[in-house]
Design a protein that fits this description.
By secondary structure, the protein is an alpha+beta fold. Helix content is about 25%, strand content about 30%. The chain contains seven helices and 15 strands. The strands form three sheets. Strands 7-2-8-1-13-12-14 form a seven-stranded antiparallel sheet, with helices on one face. Helix 1 packs antiparallel against helix 4. The longest helix has 14 residues. It is globular, with a radius of gyration of 18 Å. It starts with a strand and ends with a strand. About 45% of the residues are buried.
Length: about 290
Amino acid sequence: MCGIVGLFLKDQSLEPQLGQLLSGMLAVMTDRGPDSAGFAVYGAGDKAHLKLTVRGPNLGDVVASIGGGVTGVVRDTHLVLTFAKGDEDRVRGWLAANRPDIAIIGVGERIELYKEVGLPAEVASRFDLASMTGSHGIGHTRMATESAVTTAGAHPFSTGADQCLVHNGSLSNHCSLRRMLEPKGISFATDNDSEVAAGYLTWRMREGATLAEALEAGLSDLDGFFTFVVGTESGFAVLRDPISCKPAVMAETDRYVAFGSEYRALVGLPGIETARVFEPEPARVYAWERQ
């Protein structure tokens, strides 16, 4: 049992409140996932630069050591490096050669991704989620049932630029999917089935599918039970498996679209009392894009 939340803002005037709203939603899901928590936020960015989110010990001197115009912001155990797109190979190469103890967990123009072991409210506080701004974000609270409680096993998982996924459920064919995806250039850092789902969507979109089309294909290719909330640079989507045994509720107004494993995750949102509240249907893709 896990808790997942997501918030996609249609109204730009709400963007300064994204982190505060998402933080409250995440904390409410504590009893669905007290082991670890994580979130991804789509904030400011531009086409000329990349953000690389990494986690590890002793991050204070990394930016100065890499040099070459790289900047960075340290938040607890994570560091977001920002650099010109043409510098990505150099930055990755330096990290691999000099700091193999640092894990890369996300990259893109806008995405920043944070996750740690601990209660959701504590994890949100450690990274100061409430201060973050942006257009959309997703979060996860984990109750480990099939693997160890580790930071690496926490969600979200990101396997492509500006892409991330959170998952409540279990896939039964993730091993065969992993064997199919790895020769196609999709790499994995864990043995988690949810990371395989993220990799599958990355592969589908790399082949030219939209986010909605990739999720639609997943209904045929993914075996098991699942509720996914997925983020891309400009998109936000939800999919439940055909049986839909995992709880889910959504709310939509002219200002936002919100998802929660339970309705109580949504009650603190502005205007929720007049929102269209509904349960997402089984095997139906719900997707929104920034205009």
